[in-house]
Amino acid sequence: MTAALASPGLADLLRLPPYQAYSYSYPHKTAYRPIEPAQPLAKLWAGERRDALFLYLHIPFCSYRCGFCNLFALARPEPAKVERYLQQMERQLQATTQALGDHRFVRFALGGGTPTYLDAEQLRRVFAMVERYASIDLKATPAGIEVSPETADADKLRVCREAGIDRVSMGIQSFSDAEVRSLVRPQQREVVERAIATIRAEAFPILNLDLIYGIAGQTVTSFLASIDSALAHGPEEIYLYPLYVRPLTGLGRIEAKAGAKPGFALQAEPLDTRLALYEAGRDHLLAAGYTQVSMRMFRAPHSPDIAAPVYCCQSDGMVGVGCGARSYTGTLHYSSEYGVARRSVAEILEHYLARDPASFAYADYGIELDDDERRRRHVIQSLLIRPGLDRDDYRRRFGADCLDDLPQLRDLLALDLAQGDDSMLALTDAGLARADTIGPWLTSARIAERMHDYRLG
């Protein structure tokens, strides 16, 4: 996303392809900057509620780097570096939980990268350090892990299930070998099928499968065929992701060498088939009985309702541990630096490995959220998922109505992208389909400028 996205009106943006940027967090890490002086974590968290926190551990390693991936990840690191990383991550976890003081985690996730790039013993060490330092019972807490097909072996998955992991998310992207090759992903369907069978054999309550639409050569027919292949395994969740070709990713470098424009969002509408693919996939999943939670997420009717303490992403804190992980307090978001290119990721990782353990008790890179940004974050986090933005809850939190604080929200109603009453504002089906336009449109000019000025490496 660029600063230009913050200035046009919504009606103007609707004339562009729907896929401008994925607003999975706000503000994006490209808006972060060094914090000077560094802030003690104990002070940052002292005034925060710490009884319903989310603990996220980041494992930035993979077997290979997919062509579309812009996550903070490094493919095929040397074994010694992985060992150093686990040691340093334990030091950070210890320093972080000490700074939190009395606390309770009610959600847990192990992401990456690919956490199951680690071997079974290394995974066992990670779960042990969590139990040792964090106030959490993994067996009684919703806990998820991300895996890739080639790393989903029985020994690793058994360790995860025994530790208390109840949700496994696996990126399939496509069941077509030709489409997967277009994504620069060396994956074969037989490996995918074997991985799913292994996951099911370990009896994880929730299996999520990720699929991508907008792949070169993909058609509605081939996309629906991949969805049907996924449905044959009865996943509790399915995510449908539009393909973005971002700078410095494998696909982005291929496009740059070919002299192509950098990204689908700059193409003319007739050349962008993603909306048609999305609508076909959405309708197919709805017909299969799935419920749509967001533009990307669909939940099966047989998905279990796991009883657990309530966690609210709009108000409860996130504690990230590991290089690339983010943490959120009410007024400050912080993390390590962000990069995409292998050289940049490697440099940031080396900096993390060289840190003095005492430095982990401080936040030195991030962004402070003023009142306007806190309101915007709440609106974006609420509006882009169902059931939508609870206006009564907004009034309780911020002392005003959301339509008064952000008058631009009225445009959603005028353009039939949202509907509601005095207590709720929810996107219509058309609005949900435009989530990747609406999210960037709600970004403040200040954040858009910081993102635009960020020098991505």
From TrEMBL:
Name this polypeptide is given: Radical SAM superfamily protein
GO MF annotation, one: 4 iron, 4 sulfur cluster binding
Example of a GO biological process term: porphyrin-containing compound biosynthetic process
Domain of life: Bacteria
Residues in Radical SAM core domain copies: 47-296
GO cellular component: cytoplasm
Protein keywords: Iron, Iron-sulfur, Metal-binding, S-adenosyl-L-methionine
Keyword Nucleus appears in the UniProt entry: no
Pfam families: Radical_SAM (PF04055)
Species: Lysobacter antibioticus
Cofactor: [4Fe-4S] cluster
InterPro entries membership: Aldolase_TIM, Coproporphyrinogen-III_oxidase, Elp3/MiaA/NifB-like_rSAM, rSAM, rSAM_sf
